[in-house]
Write a structure and sequence with these properties.
Blueprint lengths: L2 H12 L13 E3 L1 H7 L3 E5 L11 H15 L4 E7 L3 H13 L2 E7 L7 H5 L1 H8 L3 E5 L5 H17 L4 E3 L9 H20 L5 E6 L3 H12 L5 E6 L4 H19 L11 E3 L12 H14 L9 H13 L5 E5 L6 H4 L1 H5 L3
Parallel strand pairs: 2-10, 3-4, 3-6, 4-5, 7-8, 7-10, 8-9
Antiparallel strand pairs: 1-2
Helix pairs in contact: 1-8, 3-4, 3-8, 4-6, 8-9, 9-10, 11-12
The chain binds pyridoxal-5'-phosphate (PLP).
Pyridoxal-5'-phosphate binds next to helix 3, helix 4, strand 7 and helix 9.
């Protein structure tokens, strides 16, 4: 890795407002038993489930940059929208509490289900515990509508003399959160250099795409020769590819640097997605169980079990001596929200 490239990237990142929320760097660990059982490549895990704030996860890194914007705007309240069992929303509620801001959250009906655990436990329980005010939005596939409704709540707050900041997640807004994963790429690169590791591939969940795009951008900006593969957890590879492509250009614009990501870098695999967002399948169930029982490492049913299933398949097919890095993006509180599904595993 060129030190000059690294210095430039860090310098560009430091020009943007950031608040420190996470316990960083997160560990990079080899999964010994899982690797032995799988055969083929060694599996390593970047423990972003351990970012520290209120059960951790990838949204802590993303919120460092969003709430940097909120602080710059001198906001006294933050608003965010997400799925009922959203980790982003829960992490935002925790960050707001830590910063002394009011938090207003809108929960969208993205996964059609009405069991008690899903509606009340897991992240929803934590949102309440963290003191967020909860609103609900009946349609889960209407990003524009959900944003509009959130804007109305912000207007009401403004009318009441508040200074709200909306965490803008839909396309068409600058992806400040992705900067957290550009920074994470620099953190990972330093760990790889320290430990003398040269992995072939990084596997990461691709949801909104902020994590995937940020990591990919950072890895390419640092000139590292590692394939970054996004495992689709929300939409198919064609739709997701376009998102990642635009996100990377938007990151370049935010950092005022050239976009180092080429078309052939945009790698997406949607073969683990069925039957859809927030729904387990045979491969993701098996990966969730194997990781728990071989490593004592907990994955989540919505985001990390599918990429781990992909990681196990790739590892098994790879040559001995290859190394794959799995980005554990967190989400473990959702285990309790998905109690009804997980119960069927035993
Ligand atoms: C949100 C989330 C993801 C997906 O990250 P994006 O940046 O939205 O693509 C992955 N894992 C977990 C646990 C998440 O909460």
């Amino acid at each position: 890795m060129g030190n000059k490239k690294r210095a430039t990237l860090i310098d560009r990142l430091e020009r943007l407002p950031r608040v420190r929320l996470g316990q960083l760097p997160t560990p990079l660990e080899r999964l010994d038993r899982l690797s032995n059982e799988t055969g083929g490549a060694e599996i390593w895990v970047k423990r972003d489930d351990c970012t520290g704030l209120a059960f951790g996860g990838n949204k802590v890194r993303q919120l460092e940059y969003y709430l940097g914007q909120a602080r710059k705007a001198e906001a006294d309240s933050v608003l965010i929208t997400g799925a009922v069992q959203s980790n982003f929303v829960r992490s935002c509620a925790a960050a707001a509490a830590k910063m002394g801001l009011e938090c207003h959250i809108q929960l969208e009906e993205r996964v059609p289900r009405d069991d008690e655990f899903y509606r009340q436990s897991g992240n929803v329980l934590l949102d309440r515990l963290l003191g967020a005010q909860i609103y609900s939005y009946a349609n889960g596939e209407d990003e524009a509508g959900a944003d509009r409704r959130l804007g109305e709540i912000a207007s009401d707050l403004r009318a009441a003399g508040k200074r709200p900041y909306i965490v803008p997640l839909s396309p068409g807004h600058p992806p400040f959160g992705a900067l957290g994963y550009v920074a994470a790429a620099a953190e990972l690169a330093a760990q790889l250099a320290d430990q003398g590791l040269a992995p072939q591939e990084i596997i990461v969940a691709s949801g909104s795409g902020a994590t995937h795009a940020g990591l990919l951008f950072g890895i390419r900006a640092l000139d590292l020769d590692i394939v970054v593969t996004g495992i689709c957890v929300r939409r198919d590879a064609t739709a997701q590819r376009q998102r990642i492509e635009s996100r990377c250009q938007e990151i370049a614009d935010l950092l005022q640097m050239d976009n180092p990501v080429r078309n052939h870098d945009l790698l997406l695999d949607d073969s683990y997605l069925a039957p859809g967002y927030g729904k387990l399948n045979a491969a993701s169930k098996a990966a969730l169980l194997a990781t728990a029982r071989s490593e004592g490492l907990l994955l989540d049913p919505v985001y990390t079990a599918k990429p781990m299933a992909a990681c196990l398949d790739r590892a098994a097919a790879a040559q001995a001596g290859c190394k794959i890095i799995f980005i554990h993006t967190g989400g473990t509180p959702a285990l309790f929200g998905y109690h009804a599904d997980l119960q069927t595993l035993f």
